[in-house]
């Protein structure tokens, strides 16, 4: 159910870095992979550890959009990194 309306919406496979003080206690330098979202629970995003991490198969977490500091996406022309904007549909 991830957003597909424009290129800046989080998508599966994007790498994620979280803001300091996030709900899962991750360091701002830790990197995760975006897997899915839970829009019914207030737009939480499911993260996994990178595939080369030893605990990759045994770990997942869900965080709200406002805890994401940066998203990085690999594209045919290279990579790009941006800070996600709040979902316009949620700003009312």
TrEMBL record:
Chain intervals for the UniProt region annotation (Disordered): 1-21
Family annotation (Pfam families): DUF6211
Matches recorded under InterPro entries: DUF6211 (IPR046183)
Protein name per the record: Uncharacterized protein
Organism field: Kitasatospora nipponensis
